[in-house]
Every structure is written in structure tokens, then in C-alpha cells.
Amino acid sequence: MSTKANAETERFDDVSNVLLLSSSMSNSESEACARLLDDPAGAHALFCTFVESPADRLRRSGIDPGAFETTTVVDVESVTRSAAADGVAGDGSTFPDGEARYHVEPVDDPTDLRELGTTLGRFLAPVSGDGRPLFCFHSLTDVLQYTGVETAFYFLQVLTDQVDRAGRLAHYHLDADACDRETVATLEGLFDVVIDLRDSDPSVQDAEG
Q1: What is the pLDDT of residues 36-89, one digit of tens each?
Q2: Is 172 exposed, middle or buried (0-12, 13-18, 19+ CB in 10 A)?
Q3: pTM beyond 0.90, yes or no
Q4: Cα(203)–Cα(209) distance, rounded to whole angstroms?
Q5: Domains and CATH numbers, the chain
Q6: CA torsion, points 52, 35, 96, 139, in degrees to nearest 10?
Q7: Cβ(51)–Cβ(77) under 8 Å?
Q8: pLDDT tens across 107-139, in order?
């Protein structure tokens, strides 16, 4: 059963799966993402991105991919972009200047959640040694757009279970303004914690008020 929490005050030591509900007008989404990735125990980082390029997703997350032992970005649908356009050289593991390292793993079809799940599963396997693995999924809004609620629900059932068994702290972005309340309520039950960024975002409150 999910609980409500605040991104600024909550500790996530015993939490595996966190849902971030944002608004299309939100200024808080990137800040919350960066906070969840700023874990002193985090040693490995995994990202899943639709639409945004790997470089853009890493930039918006506010983290230095080189700060982790390994950083992997599963890149859905954006494989038509050249590696050079993404600032990635060779096998997708380094910037041309060699500063920050990350590996890009492409997934060709955004409607094929079986392929996406299999790909993510390879990188969600438990990691030996010290340090907590971290995972950012951006975004569930795109999954719903490509597949619908029922398919997305079963996909997330398996994915959140994998995350839990791997001992990983994962957070998932969802634009609540793009979904009806029933869809949001259906998905909320899959997560340990739900953070509604609209509750604390002045830009959203001003727009609604």
C-alpha cells in the first residue's frame, strides 16, 4: 500500500519504489529527481528515458554520471538520433572530452514493453558490493501514451517487483495533468511512496488558484 510523502523531508532508506506526480506547469520535478538521486550510498545509476535524449535526461536530473561506478541510460524510441548528437562517443560510454561516463542501451519500439522490461531487467539485477543502486524512469506518461492503462499496470507490477528484489531505490515520473484521476489512483497502489509535487509547487498552486 502506498503512502504520501514529501520529497524534501522524507528519508527513503527502506523504500524501493517512489511515484512522482507532477504537473505540466511544475517547477519541482527536476529538483525532486535530483534529490532522489543524491544518495550518499548510491553507487550505480540506471535511467530510462522516452522522448528526451540520454544527455538531456542526465542534464535535467542534475547529477554527474561520472560520480557513479556505473551509469546506464535505456534510451527508448530515440535511437534515430546519432551518438554524436547526444555528445556520446564510441560505444556510448564517454563524452568526447572523457569527462563523464555512461552507457546507452537502445530500445527501438516504445510499444514493446516486453523488450523494454527485458532490457531494464538486465540492469536491475542485484549488484554485489557496497552502495545502493538508483533508478530514474522518465516517464510513465509516455508508457501510457503508447500502451494504455492495463498494459502499463502489468508492466509496472513486474518492474516494481524487480526493483524491490534488487534493493534499488527507484522513482518514476508521471504528469498527473495528462491522466484522469482513475488512472492515477490505479497506478498509485503499485508504489511504496507517492510524492505529489503539485502540493508544494507555488507555480501550480497559483495557476490553480
Answers
A1: 998 877 788 999 999 899 999 999 898 888 888 889 999 998 654 444 344 443
A2: buried
A3: no
A4: 10
A5: 3-208 (3.40.50.11570)
A6: -20
A7: yes
A8: 999 999 999 999 999 998 766 666 778 999 999
